[in-house]
Design goal:
The chain is mainly alpha-helical and about 210 residues long. The chain has 10 helices and no strands. It has 2 domains: about 100 residues, Rna Polymerase Sigma Factor, Chain: A; about 90 residues, Orthogonal Bundle (Arc Repressor Mutant, subunit A), CATH 1.10.10.10.
Length: about 210
Amino acid sequence: MTPLQPDTEELLRQAGQGDPNARARLLARHRARLRKMVSCRLDRRLAARIDSSDVVQDVLAEASQKLGRYLRDRPLPFFPWLRQLAWERLAALHRRHVQAQKRSVRREEPRALTLPDESAVELAGRLVARDSSPSQRLLREELLERMRRALLRLPERDREVLVLRHLEQLSVAEIAKVLEISPGAVKVRHLRALERLRDQLDEARGEEGP
């Protein structure tokens, strides 16, 4: 039987005791989740010059440098902390490359990163039930497009909780840390976001007519 791999808390304990192998395994353990977050958040206007894998590698290098301080203070659970580093790096890249091109003096807040259209499509796909019959596939494609447009019309805070839960696939506890609200408030916000999304779809269907 293959022995169970140490979980994050155990790796943190070992890393805190000075085990360099544990430090490396800790960062490697969360590489895939971090790559998913970066890929779905990276502004497509940067895609020609910045590779998401390079961003992930830079974030992991920064995390390795800061891990000692993290282990002393533990300001956040490990992955939300790692994700915060990635978010700050993406925001800095956006300011440097996208806003610099616009010659804007306005400093964009990190939470104001837009959701790329491809990520909106992926999120829509996760929120729409799948069906294998040809007629249902056609209906699903139409619904996907309506869903994508509805997502982009949602208030940012509603869309954000849906992205965190269904696209980045964070747990409720992790989302609570990212948004700095209680787990109960996350559940309420998520439910209300789904309700508003349904209202947007109903409204769009009414505008299109029978």
